[in-house]
Write a structure and sequence with these properties.
By secondary structure, this protein is of the alpha+beta class. The protein is built from six helices and four strands. Strands 2-3-1-4 form a four-stranded antiparallel beta sheet, covered by helices on one side. Pfam families: AsnC_trans_reg, HTH_24.
Length: 143
């Protein structure tokens, strides 16, 4: 995939606000509207832009309690555990990692008691051998 400096600038603007109009993008990039539209279509066709997502406000997110849940799974249980974690809507992201844990799940809940319930539910999944959780106190950088 070839991504130019202007494409990277376009992607940076979209990461700040994916709903920014093509006209506003063009103005900020000092390009014509048709050029920006063509770049967007090309980046989508090449798979650089896979979609546009909802970004929750800091005010809303500050009301949620989030945690990293590190998970060790049994051999050959990855696909089953992944499918079961995908069904838990409070699991907002899941990463495969190396080291003593196989997966890290990011979990968000409205209260400590709800977070505790979700972590217990994850630990009870068939194929999960061990979990270790850390509550996220604050976000220092988010891009």
């Amino acid at each position: 995939m070839q991504v130019s400096d202007k494409d990277r600038a376009l992607l940076a603007l979209l990461s700040e606000n994916a709903r920014m109009s093509v006209a506003e993008l063009a103005r900020r990039l000092d390009l014509s509207r048709s050029t920006v539209q063509a770049r967007l279509e090309r980046l989508e066709a090449q798979g650089v832009i896979a979609g546009y997502a909802l970004r929750l406000s800091d005010a809303y997110q500050s009301g949620l309690i989030r945690a990293h849940v590190m998970i060790t799974i049994a051999p050959k249980a990855l696909s089953q555990v992944t499918a079961e974690l995908n069904a838990i809507r409070e699991v907002t992201a899941l990463y495969s990692v190396n080291g003593p844990y196989d997966l890290i799940a990011i979990v968000a809940a409205p209260s400590i008691s709800e977070l505790d319930r979700i972590i217990d539910r994850i630990g009870e999944l068939s194929g999960v051998e061990r979990t270790l959780s850390s509550i996220i106190l604050s976000t220092r950088i988010s891009r």
